[in-house]
Amino acid sequence: MDQLDRCDEDARAWVRDAIALVEADANRSADTHLLPFPLPADWGVDLYLKDESSHPTGSLKHRLARSLFLYALCNGWIGPGTTVVEASSGSTAVSEAYFARMLGLPFIAVMPARTSPEKVSLIEFQGGKCHLVEDPTTVSATARDLARDLGGHFMDQFTYAERATDWRGNNNIAESIYAQLALERHPIPAWVVVGAGTGGTSATIGRYARYQRFPTKLCVVDPEGSAFWPAYVSGNFDLSTGTGSRIEGIGRPRVEASFQPAVVDRMVAVPDAASLAAMRAGSAVVGRRLGGSTGTNLWGAFGLIASMLATGRQGSVVTLICDGGERYADTYYSDEWVAGQGLDLAPHRAVIDRFLLDGTWP
Q: Residue 304: beta bridge partners?
């Protein structure tokens, strides 16, 4: 009888121990806070911010990185000494570098050259190396080629984000949101607002709401230069913009495999100046700096709340603090940088100030 046995007991034992390390890290970490965003009580609409910046690596991507590592380990794609390579605009790379260092693995992040210096420093602090490319549309292809040449593993967040996370529950972000809302006056949110980078978070939340038979609707906000919005409008999901997003962590030049448009109830295109204006306005309200993608989320949430008020509807809206603004001190919080990008925040800030005053929206 012919037989071929490829089992390496030492490698299997290493994978078992690696999974235990990743799981132990999750067990040590408390859940992230759900923070109320102050709005007039008589509006009857409550806004909550799920603070993903409190993860050990400071962003929403910590959840994704953990799931991707577990997925790759259980699939046999990562073993002792495997070089892990990722295509990332920054935050995913910071989180993956954290887990790679935990497991004693080399890590390389392939990123657009314009990624903020603060994020590059964070990746290097976690023991990773950065491979910068000028053309942001070539990041994934470059990462795939680099992993092949090194005999490593390309993590490929844009393909595997939606399948690496258990959308039915198992402590995912959607399950956490609903559990934390249980004692609020509107425990089932009318809307959840998120951006899309990989599309994994929107897929998880949209699927979970349907699985639990909740009436919650999902709104995806999309920055300038991203393909998700024009693809959703046109129905052409092969569409490519050929440009990268100025708002780090969300937006893609093409529609990625993890993006699931059928679970999205509404999409909103958000100008970059509006994202930064909302980021700064939100920071003033919560008393600490928020990241650019959080500003995109807030702009979408404010518009939805104004629509609810205009139609006399009460309820709750949830969105995310994706990361902290400390990573963008030299970019989004720099007036010189903003001016150099040709962005005028003032008209959008006026819209936000009016909304926070009387709940109206243009």
A: none
Q: What is the C-alpha separation between 86 and 277, in angstroms, rounded?
A: 31
Render the burial of 296-334: b for 16+ CB within 10 Å, e for the rest: bbbbbbbbbbbebbeeeeebbbbbbbbbbbebbeebbbe
Q: Name which of 46-55, 103-112, 165-174 the model is least confident about.
A: 165-174
The 10s digit of each residue's pLDDT in 79-124 is: 999 999 999 868 899 999 999 999 999 999 999 888 878 888 999 9
Does this model's pTM top 0.85? yes
Of 290, 331, 336, 272, which Cα lies nearest the Cα of 115?
A: 331
Domain ranges of the chain: 28-56+169-358, 61-161
- Fold of the domain built from segment(s) 61-161: Rossmann fold (3.40.50)
Q: What CATH number does domain 28-56+169-358 carry, 3.30.70.100, 3.40.50.970, 3.40.50.1100, 3.40.50.300?
A: 3.40.50.1100
- Between 191 and 244, name the one with better pLDDT: 191
Cα Rg of the chain (Å, integer): 20
Banded pLDDT at 1 (limits 50, 70, 90) = low
| Angle, alpha carbons 219-233-165 (nearest 5°) | 45
- Kindly indicate the confidence band of residue 317, based on its pLDDT and cuts at 50, 70 and 90: very high
Closest CA to 255 of 162, 323, 191: 162
Which amino acid does the sequence have at 169?
A: G
